[in-house]
Structures are given as structure tokens and as C-alpha cells.
């Protein structure tokens, strides 16, 4: 597939014509202003520039030609600079005076703000920043976020199950991992009946994708991703408005793959397994039906209450395999429910976990990375909403607590003695904001990687 530059808007050698940007805080603006020549102070005064956070000004030399930029930041986080790449005149820039933001946050925020999905558009060059003094980790995080955005933004025509498979195989080849795909009827032979049932009506065969990497002596971590490349809703067909953006229903797979790449690129001391259930939920004569009963990999029977609750079905087989591997931790990612968006809106992924200490560490990592999540409870009494009279479990039921019941469904396929997290992620920005362009988005990705570093890699402090 055609990918955006991994580090959009950044260059690693300073251009000869590069202009400096002075980064200051509102509190430091007065001291900065006092150190400027009179013509510069007069210029800013003529524009009523008061040094408020989030504003910037182009500064002239004595001849009246602009030569540098003043940026007053409203914080030291990446999004404090994310507006600049698309608002500044095209050209090259570098850090000038001021220490309002660190090198890593500056490079990451600039790259997030410069991103534009251009596979089907004429490429435009954003304002470019000379990234200096940053850690390689910030560039890896930016590249991972860009990958998620590209994958989610790509239409289903060019991002189907086979393209997901190609990306998994490419990651395995790049990092010396092993990968395999269980495709089509082989899913039934290998014990993945729910993945097969959801994807069998599509013209592109469903598949389970697996990647394994790392030293067997290290703790195993399994990452699972929902890879529904397009979701019509199946026979319980979505309305047009609900189907419009369903190319993003593989956002969980994009997050899981990007996180796996971060783990391998950083050589974290874990034994990694990545599992992606890649399907298209389509309508045809052989589509699975409301009222059908499917025996899952785990042996539990599930009555289909709603064919549009398909994500939990493809994930349950992947989670069952994950549990068989007896890992130290299972992490899954899925664009699972509209109920999560009703509860928390588009910006906050919902976090569930069967371990309180793990959940708290995850939330803290999100806060530290300005990549927040919000925890909701695995409220066991709501399992009654998934009661079936003909099977062990229904895949849906009451309209109440839809995100919670979806998480409870998944929990039934995770062994109770294995630590588990589930993130119900939107993977999308509904509108343009600095650093968060409309379209595909990586949410909770930096938090997840920070959690893994802090948990398993003693090369890094708890604040890394």
C-alpha cells in the first residue's frame, strides 16, 4: 500500500534557508519581549499581540522582511505546537530561542500536525521543522501513529483482509519475526469458526493473521486486533449514515499492528504474539443470520442476536487462542461499540481490565503521554443482558450498557488468571483540530506502548 512519510513535516538536516522559531510560555513572554529590539516590540504592539498561549507571530527584520517566528505555547505537550505546520508559510524552520517545549514533544507534535492523507491527492509539502535533539523513540511513536492513520484512512477497496495480511508479513520480514495466515475454509479446519462465519459472505476470504517475535525466555504478551475491513452490518444492515465510515472498522487491527512494530523496533524484552482477525462483514446468500448458533473455538455456543455485533465474534476466537498461549498479558484493541462513543465521545477510548493495578498503570501512561483513556467497569450483573435460551451466550441483547456488555462478552473468552486489557477505540477524528486531522487516528497507542515499556523493560524509568 502507499504510505505517508513516516515523519511528516520533519527533516533531520537544517536547510540553509531555515528560519528560527522562538518558543516561549505566556509567563515568559514579557522577559522575551524585553530582550527584543525596539522595532520588533513596536511590530508586536501594532498587532495587539499580548503573548497569549496558542498564538504566533511572524517577526520582521529592520528592513521589514519577515525572518523568524514567535510561538507562544499553552503547554509543553505535543499538541501545543501541532497547529504550526499547517498555518506557517511553507518553508523550513528550526528551534530558536526559548525552552517552552522539549525536543521530543516538539518533534512529535509537529509531525502529528503536519500529517495529511495524500494517497489520492496531489502531495503538498507542509512547513518543515529541523528535528534536533529528539530521541529515536519519539520518531518511532510518530511513525506508528502515521501508520494507524494511513491504514484507517485507506478505503476498503485497498485495505481488505489480504492487505492486512501483506502488512503483517512485511512487519515480520522487517524485524525477523515469523508470520502466518489461516485463510478461508482453513479457519474451520484450524478451529476459528466465528471468524469464518462473520467473513464467509465476502468476496475476499476471512483470515486469522499471526506474528511471533522475541526470545522464548521473556514474558509473552499477546496483542489482538479487530480487523473488520468493512462492516455493512451483515443481514442486520446498517443505515447509510452508519455505514459511511465503516472502512475504519479495522482500526483495532491497525493499533495492534502499530504497537507490535513499536515493540519490535524498540526490542522490548518480551515474547510477542500478534493476532489479527481480518474479515469483511458482507451480505450474501451464505451470510450468517440472526438466530444462528455458532460453536466458538473455546467450545462455548453463541446465539447470533445481531449480525452487526460481529467484532466481538471475530475477537473471541483470537482471544481464545491468546489464552491457550498462557501469556503474562493479553491486550486487545477494537472499534467495538457505538455505545462507547455515546458514553465518552470521540476522543476518549474506553479501557476495560480484569486487573485494577494494570488499569491504573495504563491510565497513568496515557496521562503522561497526553494520550488519555477512561476506564469503565466490567459490571458482572450485566451479563444477564447476554442471556440466550438456546445457547451459552448471545452476542448482543439489551440496548443498555452496550460497551460494558461487549467487554463482558470478550471477558468470557479470557482465562481469569491471565491479565487482560480491552480498549474500545473510535480510531477517528470527526473534524479537523491541530494535530488531530479529520479521519483516521491513533488513540491510546502511545499509552499502550509506554505501559509495556514501564512493565517489561528495566532500561527505562517509570517516567519514560
Question: What report would you give on this structure?
Answer:
The protein has 464 residues and is α/β, with parallel strands linked by helices. It folds into 2 domains: 10-124, Leucine Aminopeptidase, subunit E, domain 1 (3-Layer(aba) Sandwich); 141-456, Zn peptidases (Aminopeptidase, 3-Layer(aba) Sandwich), CATH 3.40.630. Helices cover 33% and strands 20% of the residues. It has 15 helices and 19 strands. It has an 8-stranded mixed sheet, sandwiched between helices. It has a 6-stranded mixed sheet with strand order 1-6-5-2-4-3. Helix 4 (103-114) packs parallel to helix 5 (136-153). The longest helix is centred in the first third of the chain and has 18 residues, at 136-153. It is elongated, with a radius of gyration of 24 Å. The mean pLDDT is 96.
Topology:
Elements: E1 10-11, E2 19-24, H1 29-34, H2 38-46, E3 56-60, E4 66-72, H3 84-87, E5 92-95, H4 103-114, E6 128-130, H5 136-153, H6 161-175, E7 178-183, H7 186-190, H8 193-199, E8 207-213, E9 220-231, H9 240-243, H10 251-266, E10 271-281, E11 293-295, E12 301-303, H11 311-324, E13 329-334, H12 338-344, E14 350-353, H13 356-368, E15 374-375, E16 393-394, H14 402-411, E17 419-424, E18 428-429, E19 439-440, H15 445-456
Parallel strand pairs: 1-6, 2-4, 2-5, 5-6, 9-10, 9-13, 12-16, 13-17, 14-15
Antiparallel strand pairs: 3-4, 7-8, 8-10, 11-12, 14-17, 18-19
